[in-house]
Design goal:
single chain; alpha+beta; Nucleotidyltransferase, domain 5; Gyrase A, domain 2; five-stranded mixed beta sheet; 17 strands
């Protein structure tokens, strides 16, 4: 099963030197299960784990604006071109200084999008490049908060709080502003369901802070929601975030001019075993073909020797070392007086007779005698008409003459004798 290295850039300081930021990392499989436990350290330590794995980077959600936009066009490239114009009126900064990335399109035809300053994007990529890391995707850590139907998810860390409503976009705030964030969440009207009723609020909290928030915080909100559950994450949030971003990726910021340019070398670790098996199979096929070709060559040489020996016995006094086809053609055409027959004429006559008998249907040849260019054919046919049909077919061939010499009833069939000769005989 393929593995993914998830690296999280914890700090968001564009002025920090490349590769100097503190990062967290973990390795998970395709189902999001832990393969390598989370660790923290310099970015260069995480770079050592990239080989043979897909690399995904999580950046701070506080540095990226998440919103939705009405984009009527279709297609990835056309959406990317339209996003700056669709969001221009909502942004205070010059769109030329911003990078836009598009995500999924919702049933209401709105497109999820992310907006980040190019300066910040360049800083993240510089940090990764400084450590020799080439990532296949960059997401915000807010995208790693699962969208759970019917439940609002709240992730708490020392420096931030991430909240995601079902079907909504992630929202980020400083931990000190948690109560204000929850008050705004409670004040926001909830859309009615299909039956017209307003769904209840269910809050699932994951507390990854060192000491955990005191119970008094949650007691103030306990009676204002349908249910509230708090789970502690003493080992931190990364492993949960890593599993979520692998199984349910959000908006990949590597789009447009920042898009990853895949090369054959980047895929080689995953295809190395398959390539080795294909190479082994190809070598086996080539070796087998070589052995077969050598065997067939030997058999062909032995067969040709036998044919030439047979030609020497059949045509005594002739040189069988030359062109055997020309030798046989000459003999069948009457080129050898010792043969006593015109072989080629006999074969042509038999070909005409075979076609005539086949066209008749149920007739069959019982015997034949060929002498001096005349073929006497004994045939059994269903009726006298069938016998005469054979004669007509032979004559219609154009170069032969055919006559019925006799016909006798044998049970329900006719046994006849047909004399076939050249048209001038």
């Amino acid at each position: 099963m393929s593995e993914t290295l998830v690296i999280r850039l914890v700090t968001d300081d564009p002025t920090r030197a490349a590769g100097m930021g503190r990062v967290e990392w973990a390795v998970v499989d395709a189902t999001g299960a832990c393969v390598l436990a989370p660790a923290t350290g310099p970015l260069g330590d995480a770079a050592a784990l990239c080989a043979g794995r897909r690399t995904v980077v999580l950046v701070p959600a506080a540095g990226v604006l998440r919103t939705r936009a009405d984009v009527p066009v279709k297609g990835t490239n056309r959406i990317a071109q339209a996003l700056p114009f669709a969001l221009e009126d909502l942004l205070a900064e010059d769109v030329e200084e911003l990078h836009f990335a598009a995500g999924a399109r919702y049933p209401d035809d709105q497109v999820v999008c992310a907006v980040v300053r190019r300066e910040r994007m360049d800083s993240w990529l510089a940090q990764l490049a400084g450590a020799g890391i080439k990532s296949q995707a960059i997401h915000t850590d807010g995208d790693a908060i699962l969208d759970v139907a019917g439940n609002t998810t709240l992730m708490l860390e020392e420096h931030q709080a991430l909240l995601r409503d079902p079907g909504g976009d992630p929202v980020v705030a400083e931990l000190e502003s948690l109560e204000g964030l929850l008050e705004l969440w409670l004040a926001q009207p909830r859309p009615a369901g299909a039956d017209g009723s307003v769904p209840p609020r269910h809050l699932q909290v994951y507390d990854a802070t060192v000491d955990g928030l005191p119970n008094e915080v949650w007691e103030r909100f306990q009676d204002r929601v349908a249910s509230l559950e708090v789970r502690r994450l003493p080992d931190g949030a990364l492993l949960r975030l890593a599993g979520a971003i692998v199984t349910n990726p959000g908006v990949n910021l590597l789009q447009g001019e920042y898009a990853t340019r895949n090369t054959l070398g980047s895929h080689w670790p995953r295809w190395r075993l398959a390539a080795a098996l294909v190479a082994t199979l190809a070598a086996t096929v080539v070796a087998t073909a070589g052995v077969d070709a050598w065997r067939l060559k030997r058999e062909s040489a032995a067969l040709e020797a036998e044919i030439r020996q047979a030609a020497g016995f059949t045509f005594p006094g002739t040189d069988a070392s030359g062109d055997l086809r020309a030798l046989v053609d000459a003999r069948l055409s009457g080129g050898a007086p010792a043969s006593g027959t015109s072989g080629r004429k006999f074969l042509e006559t038999m070909q005409t007779v075979a076609v005539a008998v086949a066209k008749t249907g149920n007739a069959k040849i019982e015997g034949l005698n060929y002498r001096a260019g005349v073929l006497e054919l004994q045939v059994r046919a269903p009726s006298a008409e069938s016998l005469d049909t054979i004669r007509k077919f032979v004559v219609e061939a154009g170069s032969l003459k055919a006559d019925i010499q006799s016909s006798n009833a044998v049970g329900d069939e006719i046994q006849g004798r047909i004399r076939i000769s050249g048209a001038g005989a």
